[in-house]
């Protein structure tokens, strides 16, 4: 063992003696200090990253809650509009159905006023005249009913459709 220590000391003296020891110690100490400094900075950066993550998570939750609230408000408005549109559609459909019914009756009764052929005998003329008056009264009442129905529902009919 003494031989190895002597050999080691002789090599150190030959290379430069105390200068080699100082260089080796400084390299070892600098590596130690660098590792210590890097660990300290890595720990600081980890803490900063975690802090930023928590801040971002908090902000994300606030934004999400805000948008969720706004989305619910918009959904409520849309559902109200859909409901109102359905109610309005049903009311207008019922109006147009009623108008169609009374105008169909009116047209049927108006067509009965002027039949396609007439009979020429005197008895038939008086009979025809009485029938024509009855048909005219029926057609007139149908026309009045259709006109009344139209006026009652005038508020539901678009102005463009009346032109």
Architecture overview:
- It is a single chain.
- This protein is mostly helical and 163 residues long.
- It has one domain (2-162).
- Helices cover 89% and strands 0% of the residues.
- It has helices at residues 2-15, 18-113, 122-152, 159-162.
- It is rod-shaped, with a radius of gyration of 52 Å.
- The N and C termini lie far apart (121 Å).
- 3% of the residues are buried.
Architecture blueprint of SSEs:
Elements lengths: L1 H14 L2 H96 L8 H31 L6 H4 L1
Look at the structure and give the mean pLDDT.
76
* Total DSSP E strands: 0
Largest sheet: none
Pairing-aware structural class of the strands and helices? mainly alpha
Q: Total helix count?
A: 4
Uncertain segments? 116-123
Order of helices and strands: HHHH
The overall number of domains is 1
Q: Helix content range of the residues, please?
A: over 70%
Specify Rg, calculated over alpha carbons: 52 Å
Strand content: under 5%
Termini distance?
Answer: 121 Å
Shape: rod-shaped
Short descriptors:
163 residues; mainly alpha; 4 helices
Summarize the structure.
By secondary structure, this protein is an all-alpha fold. The chain has 4 helices and no strands.
């Amino acid at each position: 063992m003494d031989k190895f220590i002597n050999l080691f000391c002789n090599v150190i003296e030959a290379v430069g003696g105390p200068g080699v020891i100082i260089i080796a110690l400084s390299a070892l100490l600098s590596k130690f200090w660098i590792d210590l400094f890097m660990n300290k900075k890595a720990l600081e950066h980890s803490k900063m990253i975690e802090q930023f993550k928590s801040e971002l998570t908090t902000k994300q939750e606030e934004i999400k809650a805000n948008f969720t609230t706004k989305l619910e408000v918009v959904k409520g408005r849309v559902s109200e509009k859909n409901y109102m549109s359905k109610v309005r559609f049903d009311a207008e459909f019922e109006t147009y159905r009623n108008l169609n019914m009374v105008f169909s009756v009116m047209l049927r009764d108006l067509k009965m006023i002027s039949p396609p052929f007439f009979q020429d005998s005197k008895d038939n003329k008086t009979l025809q005249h009485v029938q024509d008056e009855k048909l005219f009264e029926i057609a007139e009442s149908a026309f009045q009913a259709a006109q009344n129905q139209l006026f009652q529902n005038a508020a539901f009919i678009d102005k463009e459709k009346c032109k």
